């Protein structure tokens, strides 16, 4: 591939070619230009903006660190997403070169072309990571969390035209650059030099770099280290927060609650193993936490698990300003008064997902559970009642109400001691719910032993296969080939 001496005429020559050839030719041009890295860097001013993306991709793939740094300092667009490059070529040195380019953007006059970069997106797309199966990228960056949260398009990017030369028009002397990243924080994160370097770089930037985390997962973190990271993050950018460890000292709980109240745009909150201290001794600490929780005006999803909430659910939910779309209260020893409160709260008008798994609901049927399901039947799409000690009589009692949930898409009933006959009856009735596509059903009592509401001992595979065959036969008879019934079975049937 011949590279002309006149760098600026290269892309003009390519653009005269047919459009289908353009991406491939630009890619070849980029690799050819980088064969002489020094000359390519010195000629950046002559390149039109269309050549920058393939040039940066080629530099990242081949580890041209000087070129990467220079490209960032002359980047002609307000937005740069690196997630796909990190997944394809996980290389800390290349990524470090990009960050070094942000450290000191060129002063006026150093380069005629100045960087327009405002957002550097480092997030790893969950679907892309899953489809590629790239364990190497996650091994190299274990603190980066593949996220399903979609980043909003920056306003500046939405208005920009990649074919326009962004050098034209007025420009502010200084604007901060946002670094978008999703973090999975747990021990031993502090031993990772890259994350430590990133945090230090942001801390020392004097506000020129803003660390923006859409999804934050916290697990087994030293409290002082956690608070240090929270101080570095732009808290109003966080949309999803998951905390899988709680702090023992009341002073720690209070300080964390203070930071939680500042996450004003939080959409999803998951708290596991939190000790809700409703006793008079610790009432002040719990009250302060709830007061901070009440500041989360955009909260749509709340997940509480492995926490003792008996009789106090109303204190948690009543402090929320707006109705939830998803509520997961798993293994929280709920009482009938908790379910009764929920069925009369403002949340039942909007709930699309309800998960009550791990709570003993057997003594709430007939009664509060039926009322609750009736109240949410107009909106509910996802219902989990796994390991709730429901037996045939309980399932039969709530079945009419389930059939009113016309928008239901998923139903989870695993680890409930239910017979084969009740399962077939459930199928026959819920087959009329045309939106229902997936049912996770328990191992029938004929196929295994249940102890304290949990399946126990080996599964009779022959009987289990017969149950599955009966279910498939009935699905065909009901003309519901689109409905998937999956057993919660530790040993799949051959």
TrEMBL record:
GO BP: any one term: negative regulation of cell differentiation
Keyword Repeat: yes
InterPro entries the record matches: Leu-rich_rpt, LRR_dom_sf, LRRC14/PRAME, PRAME
Record's keyword terms, sorted: Leucine-rich repeat, Repeat
One Gene Ontology cellular component annotation held by this UniProt entry: cytoplasm
Keyword match Repeat: yes
Pfam family, one: LRR_1
Entry's family note: Belongs to the PRAME family. LRRC14 subfamily.
The protein's name in its UniProt record: Leucine-rich repeat-containing protein 14
Organism: Sciurus vulgaris
């Amino acid at each position: 591939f011949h590279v002309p001496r006149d760098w600026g005429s290269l892309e003009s020559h390519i653009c005269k070619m047919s459009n289908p050839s353009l991406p491939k030719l630009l890619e070849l041009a980029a690799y050819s230009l980088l064969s002489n890295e020094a000359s390519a860097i010195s000629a950046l001013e002559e390149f039109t903006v269309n050549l920058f993306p393939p040039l940066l991709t080629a530099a990242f793939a081949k580890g041209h660190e000087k070129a990467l740094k220079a490209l960032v300092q002359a980047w002609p667009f307000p937005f740069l997403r690196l997630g796909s490059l990190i997944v394809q070529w996980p290389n800390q040195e290349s990524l470090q070169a990009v960050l070094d380019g942000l450290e000191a953007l060129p002063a006026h006059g150093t380069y005629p072309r100045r960087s327009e970069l405002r957002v550097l997106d480092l997030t790893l797309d969950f679907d892309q990571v899953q489809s590629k199966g790239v364990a190497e990228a996650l091994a190299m960056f274990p603190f980066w969390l593949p996220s399903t949260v979609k980043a909003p398009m920056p306003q500046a990017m939405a208005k920009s035209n990649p074919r326009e030369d962004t050098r034209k028009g007025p420009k502010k002397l200084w604007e901060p650059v946002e670094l978008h990243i999703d973090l999975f924080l747990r021990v031993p994160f502090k031993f990772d030099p890259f994350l430590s370097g990133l945090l230090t770089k942001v801390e020392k930037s004097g506000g020129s770099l803003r660390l923006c985390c859409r999804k934050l997962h916290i697990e087994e973190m030293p409290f002082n280290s956690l608070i240090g990271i929270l101080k570095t993050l732009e808290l109003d950018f966080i949309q999803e927060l998951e905390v899988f460890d709680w702090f023992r000292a009341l002073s720690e709980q209070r300080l964390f609650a203070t930071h939680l109240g500042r996450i004003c745009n939080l959409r999803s909150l998951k708290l596991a193993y939190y000790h809700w201290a409703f006793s008079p001794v610790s009432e002040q600490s719990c009250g302060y936490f709830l007061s901070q929780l009440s500041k989360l005006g955009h909260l749509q999803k709340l997940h509480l698990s492995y926490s003792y909430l008996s009789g106090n659910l109303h204190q948690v939910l009543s402090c929320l300003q707006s109705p939830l779309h998803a509520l997961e209260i798993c293994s929280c020893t709920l009482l009938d008064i908790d379910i009764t409160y929920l069925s009369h709260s403002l949340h039942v008008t909007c709930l699309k997902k309800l998960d009550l798994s791990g709570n003993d609901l057997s003594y709430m049927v007939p009664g509060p559970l039926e009322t609750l399901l009736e109240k949410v039947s107009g909106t509910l799409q996802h219902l989990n009642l796994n390991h709730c000690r429901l037996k045939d009589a309980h399932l039969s009692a709530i079945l009419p109400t389930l059939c009113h949930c016309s928008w239901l898409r998923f139903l989870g009933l695993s680890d409930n001691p239910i017979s084969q006959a009740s399962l077939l009856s459930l199928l026959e009735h819920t087959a009329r719910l045309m939106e229902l596509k997936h049912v996770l059903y328990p191992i029938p009592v004929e196929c295994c032993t249940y102890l304290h509401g949990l399946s126990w001992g080996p599964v009779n595979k022959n009987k289990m296969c017969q149950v599955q065959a009966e279910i498939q036969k009935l699905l065909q008879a009901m003309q519901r080939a689109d409905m998937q019934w999956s057993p919660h079975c530790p040993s799949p049937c051959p």
